[in-house]
Amino acid sequence: MRHSLIAAFGLMSMVLTFATCSTDFELNQPQVTPVLYGVLDHTADTQWVKLNKSFLGGGDNYTYAAINDCTEYNNAVITVSEIGGTNRTWTLTETYVPVDNNSGIFYTDSQKVYYFVASGGLDNSASYDIEVEFDDNTPKVSASTEMIGNFDFTGLFKAKLFADLELETGSGLASPNYVSNFGVDWNLASDAKRYDFTIRFHYVEFNLAGDSVEKHIDWFQGTQKSVLTDGVGSMSHVVNGESFYQFVGQHDDLQDLTDIDKRVIKNVEFILTAGHDELNTYIEVNEPVTGVVTERPTYTNITNGIGLFSSKASVVLTRATPARDINLKRNSTEELSQGQYTGMLLFCSDSAAYVGEGYHCN
Length: 362
Description:
Blueprint: H1 5-15, E1 34-41, E2 46-53, H2 61-65, H3 68-71, E3 76-83, E4 89-91, E5 93-98, E6 110-117, E7 127-134, E8 141-146, H4 155-160, E9 182-187, E10 192-207, E11 212-225, E12 234-239, H5 241-250, E13 260-276, H6 277-285, E14 306-317, E15 319-321, E16 324-325, H7 330-338, E17 347-348
Parallel strand pairs: 1-14, 13-17
Antiparallel strand pairs: 1-2, 2-6, 3-4, 3-7, 5-6, 7-8, 9-12, 10-11, 10-13, 13-14, 15-16
């Protein structure tokens, strides 16, 4: 399952209060409250939903939270219906997924999630309803969302990448000249408010035995918000070249050089994720409190429950042309391999264009 909006769904399922249980614990609350989270993405093949219950016990609630049976329903049927388009309906399948960070107060071995796969993908011109029904007297839970319209990086920005990515233009390592104003531009999407932009750098790591593994690190560029959500206009972000090398040079995943022979520089990707206006509102309401007023309002669009049902979408720019990835240009490659911030991290290039250069892989 896939920092930012992509991470938002995972955070929802981990940091908010879930559940009640069928154990012998005495609960203070005679009726539990369903907690539902779903963020549909028409650019993804699989759609995920998280369903839990709130709880309040007579003893230590931290004890209840650590018991899986206290936080999950065993009698729920979830359906998602398409309104408009081809008017399809899906009954979601339940599965268990491992928890990435095996820590915290909630049950951490695995968690139940629900999913469905829409053949041909979701229709971003349609809206979607979700319903949760139970086999007891628990009221039906429901919510609706619209999808995000089409959006992409602008044609002018894509054209800049035909000659690859240039972040350093100096005449040598002794006098680096970092690009400080590399602009990234994209068109806006209808119904979208929040845009998260990430640069993903790929490399292949070789150990001393000659074995290799493909890896990447993500350089998150932050969140930008549009004034309107009508999908008209564009937005820009400026990338600082020196900041890129500093980020790579300080990245935790690259510091341990034990058993590392080399790291071969590969391509760069640009990832843009747009979040629905309602998703943005939910995130803003639940952001850390920074003022003297510590109470926060409760925001939900779920009927007979709490949580969020909304949408997001992503575009990934990985090609400079239909046949070639986006690569770093010569000076930028040399800086990554031998420069002041990253020269100790064993980067090199296997490009035939750099044979004989000090930064070509042996």
